[in-house]
Design brief:
This protein is α+β, with helices and mostly antiparallel strands. Helix content is about 35%, strand content about 20%. The protein contains two helices and four strands, in the order E-E-H-E-E-H.
Length: about 90
């Protein structure tokens, strides 16, 4: 995933506690469509992001970590990061 750029633009904690990235959209509707699309992928992985919106709902702030792995980044987080980037 990393070698093909699937984590492009994601901030990684030095100790791999999380991956973070903000996605900016021209409209609230486009941001919401992104959230809905990523939610489908997250459900299929049974691995869900922590996210919030800002900037009038046009920016989606995503944090990925694996609570089952003592809040460390796992392959599931990289899979979901790549899915977010692909949207």
């Amino acid at each position: 995933i990393v070698s093909r750029g699937g984590d492009l633009g994601w901030e990684r904690a030095e100790n791999f506690d999380y991956l973070k990235k903000s996605f900016e959209f021209p409209s609230f509707e486009q941001a919401n469509a992104f959230i809905q699309s990523v939610a489908k992928r997250a459900n299929s992985l049974d691995h869900h992001p922590e996210w919030s919106v800002s900037n009038g709902g046009c920016t989606v702030n995503v944090t990925l970590t694996s609570h089952f792995a003592d809040n460390k980044v796992t392959r599931l987080d990289f899979d979901l990061a790549e899915a977010c980037n692909d949207e």
